[in-house]
Amino acid sequence: MKLRYFVSLLFTLPFLISNSNSHEYYVSVTEIEYAKEQQSLQIISQIFIDDFETLLRKRYDESIILAGKDESEKVETYMSRYLTDKLKVKVNDTNVNFKFIGKEYKDDITYCYLEIENVSNIKSIAVTNQVLFDVFSDQQNIVRLKLLGKNKSFLLVPENDTSVLNFK
Fold first, then answer.
1. Is residue 16 assigned to a domain?
2. Are 144 and 156 within 8 A, CB to CB?
3. Is residue 7 situated within a structural domain?
4. What is the chain's pLDDT, residue by residue, as a tens digit (168 residues)?
5. Residues 54, 56, 57, 58: is their CA dihedral positive or negative?
6. Residues 27, 33, 39: CA angle, nearest 5 degrees
7. Closest CA to 22 of 50, 64, 44, 41
8. 148 alpha carbon, distance to own chain's centre
9. Which domain holds residue 152?
């Protein structure tokens, strides 16, 4: 009896373990904070590594592997290009461009660091975040804004992909 239990456990264990790394929800978190002394918007976008890898493979290069020791030098270029296309920021109704500072991996998350320089006298900020909407239909993107004494969070979905915060 014990042998039968052990053998069945031996055969089912790999299936249980293989499903433990996947997740059932698709979400990213983008935090935007105003650094008054630097007069810049500092942005951290957090995206699951496996989801970002899936996207980059489909869009740019099927051989891309993120967070590996042999990661392609093109990865940051692809990440920057994609985020520039899917993450838009307007300050005072004017489109502003961010600079891709870099990225790092922690646990199962990619942290992308972005910055928008020379920002002052903010009356409004609008953020459009379409990250991963083109790959996962149930993707949700959380945008957290921390500026001028206000903290506001928005949940963006494909049907409603823009958040606006006014300071007037």
1. no
2. no
3. no
4. 444 433 343 343 344 333 445 557 799 999 999 999 999 999 999 999 999 999 999 999 999 999 988 888 899 999 999 999 999 999 999 999 999 999 999 999 999 999 999 998 899 999 999 999 999 999 999 999 999 888 999 999 999 999 999 987
5. positive
6. 145
7. 50
8. 24
9. 23-166
